[in-house]
Amino acid sequence: DVVYTFFDSVPRSMLTTFRCSFGDCSTSQGTPLFEHIQREVGTEASVACCAILFLVTVGLFNVISAIFVQSTMLAASEMDQDKRISRLLDQQLWSTRIYVLMHKLMAMSPQHEAPDRLSDQLEDVLGLEVPAKTVDMLLRDPEAIAALDDLDIGREDHPFLADILDPDNSGSITIHEFVDGLRRLRGQARRSDIVSVDLMVRCIQRQVFEMHGKVINAESNSESNPAE
């Protein structure tokens, strides 16, 4: 009679299954319902009831939890990506942080003096060229590191920044190389970066082939028309 009280109708059965799924599978007297099922109905019904509750608790609830967690993580990832894109497109952020870096770079350069306003010495700023080691000194300044972080330039690139900003390996970095290099370093690596490098390599490859062909032709002409 105790068992049939909890399963005497479809709504009552659904309520009992719902309660048992959340761990409240007991009678009004506080005794476990499974013991009554085992005693009054038998082992088969008890095993079937345990299997149903196991599938509901472990199977269905875990699937629902996984979907919820996945949706939450996806939404968080999209929000983070939107914020990152917004920072990359923020011209005011770029202008203010690059101003800080240029001002400190001039202040640390032994050949230059940093003015109060860079616009007062615009010609000197445009002609600025500093040794690569000055960039290494810049990376020891907390304010400069904070500016690089605001520009989404990864900390893992900081130790190699002097080499990255010196593409011709001349040992010195011009202000154009400094600004253009930092602009390209912002954010994560994108597909367009790889495609751009691939196209440049192909262009260089074509030029090398053309030069090679001209050299071969020059050698052939010299062999067919030796100097007298």
Quick overview:
With 228 residues, the chain is mainly α.
Instruction: Tell me the strand percentage band.
Output: under 5%
The beta-strand count equals: 2
Low-confidence stretches at least 5 residues in length (pLDDT < 50)? Answer: none
What's the Cα radius of gyration? 36 Å
Shape, principal axes of CA atoms = elongated
- Give a quick account of the main beta sheet: strands, pairing sense, barrel closure: 2 strands, antiparallel
Helix fraction, binned, reads: 55-70%
Q: N-to-C terminal Cα separation, in Å? A: 124 Å
Number of helices: 11
What would the average pLDDT be, to the nearest integer?
81
Give a description of the structure.
The protein has 228 residues and is mainly alpha-helical. It is 70% helix and 3% strand. The protein has helices spanning 2-6, 10-21, 33-40, 43-88, 91-108, 122-126, 132-138, 142-150, 161-164, 175-185, 191-224, and strands spanning 129-131, 172-174. α5 packs across α7 and α5 (91-108) packs antiparallel against α8.
Question: What's the helix and strand layout?
Answer:
Layout: H1 2-6, H2 10-21, H3 33-40, H4 43-88, H5 91-108, H6 122-126, E1 129-131, H7 132-138, H8 142-150, H9 161-164, E2 172-174, H10 175-185, H11 191-224
Antiparallel strand pairs: 1-2
Helix pairs in contact: 3-4, 5-7, 5-8
Offer a few descriptive terms.
3% strand, 70% helix, mainly alpha, single chain, 228 residues
